[in-house]
Amino acid sequence: MTGSLLARFLLRRSPPPQSQFIFQRGISQSAAERTKDNVAAEPPVLPPFDYVPPSYSGPSGDHVLAKRREYLSPSIMHFYKSPLNIVEGKKQYLFDENGRRYVDAFGGIATVCCGHCHPDVVSAIVDQTKKLQHSTVLYLNHAVADFAEALAGKLPGDLKVAFFTNSGTEANELAMMIARLYTGCHDIISIRNSYHGNAGGTMGATAQSIWKFNVVQSGVHHAVNPDPYRGLFGSDGAKYARDVQEIINFGTSGNVAAFISEAIQGVGGIVELVTDRELKTPAKVETLHVMDQMKELGVLIGKGGYYGNVFRITPPLCFSKEDADFVVDAMDYTLSRM
Ligand SMILES: Cc1ncc(COP(=O)(O)O)c(C=O)c1O
């Protein structure tokens, strides 16, 4: 990577386990440690994949975009300067309208954890849909009970009862409701910079202004985010814990229904890109630029963070070591040319 760029474009913070590969591959190295020899001359090439999609004859991306603008809510946004028209998916890869293949390093977030169009998943869906497409819990059917039993067999401890919902928002709404009913308390403690969903209760628990509307959101108190990089108390865990206790003591009746926290703040982001190490200036424009360039190389990643300066890399489980190496090479190649 060229020194001048790297000096400006710094990847900071202690690497969490899932981003070790980025650091190991040298993106966080200081400019002085890098030499011209490290810079790859040729763009990296996607790992081979034994599948060619049938040619696509549906509407073009421009057509779809125009239709979305006319018939869908303007709140729906899209990634990339030139939006992608994705028409097919297979395992860890997606194909656009021109048959171009991309490695999906983003879609593994809940929706395609076992990859796109996994044949076992597809055939289970097709088989069930042919027999019975929808029913109500007021009638019996073995499928949902079998699934709950199978899940219980894999979960630890007392986690033996399932309550199925359609989304993360619904799951968290339900969890908050159950906690409030069970404890008889209304107050819930959440953490700043968190994201828990966008319905009434979960928007209250969410603590980023960009994901909140100005509507009544009662009974959630937001504790200081224990963030070693930007957090008020740095890495002093005891101080963050004391903040939670103070909220309970001085902001509630002394009892709370629940404490809700993500294990890792996915939307809030954990490894920031900054353009100035001292000022911690968010590299917002640069993050968008890298995403666009990576797309051109055949890699799809997401972005997040309150300042829009965090990459969200959440590949499906069938992502291989070759894919991971390719993604890192593509990022290295992109950063070295900025
Ligand atoms: C941590 C977390 N909780 C809840 C949600 C909401 O899930 P959904 O979009 O399925 O409603 C998300 C979605 O990104 C999330 O990241």
UniProtKB/TrEMBL annotation:
Coiled coil: none annotated. Pfam families: Aminotran_3 (PF00202). The keyword Iron does not apply. This is Alanine-glyoxylate aminotransferase-like protein. Keywords: Pyridoxal phosphate. InterPro entries: Aminotrans_3, PyrdxlP-dep_Trfase, PyrdxlP-dep_Trfase_major, PyrdxlP-dep_Trfase_small. It comes from the Eukaryota. Belongs to the class-III pyridoxal-phosphate-dependent aminotransferase family. One of its GO terms (molecular function) is transaminase activity.
